[in-house]
Amino acid sequence: MSVSHFFAHLSRMKLIHRWPLMRNVSTENISEHSMMVAFVAHGLALIKNKHFGGKANPEKVALLALFHDASEVLTGDMPTPIKYYNPAIAKEYKKIELAAEQKLLSMLPEEFRDDYAPLLDSECIDKADYAIVKQADTLCAYIKCLEELSMGNHEFVQAKKRLEEMLEQRRTPELTYFEEVFIPSFELTLDEIS
């Protein structure tokens, strides 16, 4: 039996900071971000099922969300404006992400690779589940903007506008429900939500 570095790499998610080009009042790492995305993705899947006739598996979606940025332990967090600056850069970065996903999978003992491929390998991930995770990912980035803006950090004004556009592109009834029911609380103080 050989040693696997898989979980040691995952534990480094806490060392990869998000929003690296922006001044942050409160820093956020990909471990914290992934957990929040899992919470929100789970909620979106439940909303979809209970209110809009969906058949999503909330637990599977939450698990996928926990792993959605795992490859960044090998690549770091590439800022969105750079990653999508033009189609050529986006295409090349996608290749880098795929290589990182394969590298992470290769760290696992052979008997577990098929179990983790649907969580790590973007070519094996269920597209419907991933769409929910992308909604949650965008919502969490939007929430980060609201939090930074509420602390007086105007660095996030443009990011908030860009994320509002992305949310419109990903618009579903469950996303609208989440925004109407849960998002207003993120602009309140602790005393106001208590």
Explained architecture:
- The protein is globular, with a radius of gyration of 17 Å.
- It is an all-alpha fold and 194 residues long.
- Helix content is 65%, strand content 0%.
- Helix 8 runs antiparallel to helix 9.
- The chain has a single domain, classed as Hypothetical protein af1432 (Orthogonal Bundle).
- It contains eleven helices and no strands.
Please describe the structure with a list of short key phrases separated by commas or semicolons.
194 residues, Hypothetical protein af1432, 11 helices, mainly alpha, globular
> Mind telling me the CATH class?
Mainly Alpha
Per CATH, what is the topology?
Hypothetical protein af1432
Overall pLDDT score: 94
Uncertain regions spanning at least 5 consecutive residues: none
| Separate helix tally | 11
Order of helices and strands: HHHHHHHHHHH
| Total separate domains | 1
**SS-based structural class?**
mainly alpha
What sort of overall outline do the alpha carbons produce when their principal axes are compared?
globular
CATH homology superfamily name: Hypothetical protein af1432
Kindly state the percentage of residues in helix.
Answer: 55-70%
| DSSP strand count | 0
**Assembly form of the protein:** single chain
Tell me the span between the first and last alpha carbons: 52 Å
Using the 3D structure, state the CATH architecture: Orthogonal Bundle
**Strand fraction band?**
under 5%
Largest sheet: none
User: Roughly how many Å is the radius of gyration?
Assistant: 17 Å
